[in-house]
């Protein structure tokens, strides 16, 4: 069973995405911000995929992506955000993001992208 680490400061967003992924057979771990997610990763959590919001308190998604890349060189990381500007997207790619999803993302769209990045 593939595992996903979801990182978002919105409890509603976490609950919605977690439900969509679990129904499709994924094991899902969650974190409320980048700092909490990084603590989980440095404690040994090794998800098959990370999906992170960009704008969060304590540690934003770009910082999380940069730090997670030091621990998980080849794990796909998707940035999930309301930001659709090209410069933010390019910055996320420079930090090591595999892809970009713009909120709100529907369950079927999310699963399509998740399955694409996990079968690469």
From TrEMBL:
Residue positions, PTM 4-aspartylphosphate: 53
Any Gene Ontology biological process: phosphorelay signal transduction system
Protein name, per record: Response regulator
Keyword line: Phosphoprotein
PROSITE patterns found in the cross-reference section: RESPONSE_REGULATORY
Residue ranges of every copy of the Response regulatory domain listed in the record: 3-118
InterPro entries named among the record's database cross-references: Bact_response_regulator (IPR050595), CheY-like_superfamily (IPR011006), Sig_transdc_resp-reg_receiver (IPR001789)
Native organism: Sphaerotilus sulfidivorans
Residue runs in coiled coils: none
């Amino acid at each position: 069973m593939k595992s996903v680490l979801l990182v978002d400061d919105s409890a509603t967003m976490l609950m919605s995405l977690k439900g969509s992924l679990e129904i499709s057979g994924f094991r899902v771990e969650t974190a409320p911000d980048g700092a909490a997610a990084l603590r989980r990763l440095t404690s040994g959590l090794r998800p098959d995929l990370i999906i992170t919001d960009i704008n969060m308190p304590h540690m934003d998604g770009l910082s999380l992506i940069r730090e997670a890349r030091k621990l998980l060189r080849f794990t796909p990381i998707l940035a999930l955000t309301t930001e659709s500007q090209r410069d933010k997207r390019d910055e996320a790619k420079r930090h090591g993001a595999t892809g970009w999803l713009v909120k709100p993302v529907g369950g079927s769209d999310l699963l399509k992208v998740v399955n694409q990045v996990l079968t690469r």
